[in-house]
């Protein structure tokens, strides 16, 4: 599960993907388990939920380069694009509304575009978190 955003601009609506992962880590009781993984240039926490092993990932790059971290982590952990969930902001959704999308285009989102390019696939599931148009 990759929370897309701009690492240096945490707390902004554009980095809501990272905030969602912080909350998920708290709910899965691994919030103290974040560590920097230089191999994929990201903060990583490992968790388990409902019999699944999860890799939580917050890229330490700008949004336009998040895909490099996601692709590196996929290689390190043996994940296919269809195993990956991207959590990202969506300007076209009202603040706080969410939607799940399976595959398809980036719809103008540079972080998703970066992931599609780096993984050579658009098969990732996406949790689109509405931020409205501030």
TrEMBL record:
Its EC number is 3.1.1.29. It comes from the Eukaryota. It is an enzyme of class 3 (hydrolase). The keyword Repeat does not apply. Keywords: Hydrolase, RNA-binding, tRNA-binding. One of its GO terms (molecular function) is tRNA binding. Pfam families: Pept_tRNA_hydro. InterPro entries: Pept_tRNA_hydro, Pept_tRNA_hydro_CS, Pept_tRNA_hydro_sf. The keyword tRNA-binding applies. PROSITE patterns: PEPT_TRNA_HYDROL_2. Belongs to the PTH family. This is peptidyl-tRNA hydrolase. It comes from Urocolius indicus. The gene is Ptrh1.
């Amino acid at each position: 599960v990759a929370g897309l955003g701009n690492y240096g601009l945490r707390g902004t609506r554009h980095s809501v993907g990272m905030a969602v992962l912080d909350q998920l880590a708290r709910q899965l009781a691994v919030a103290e388990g974040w560590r920097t993984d230089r191999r994929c240039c990201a903060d990583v926490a490992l968790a388990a939920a409902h019999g699944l092993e999860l890799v939580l990932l917050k890229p330490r790059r700008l949004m336009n380069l998040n895909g490099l971290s996601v692709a590196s982590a996929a290689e390190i952990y043996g994940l296919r694009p269809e195993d990956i969930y991207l959590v990202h902001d969506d300007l076209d959704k009202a603040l706080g509304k969410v939607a799940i999308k399976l595959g398809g285009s980036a719809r103008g989102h540079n972080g998703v575009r970066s992931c599609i390019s780096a993984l050579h696939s658009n098969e990732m599931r996406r949790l689109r978190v509405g931020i409205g148009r501030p």
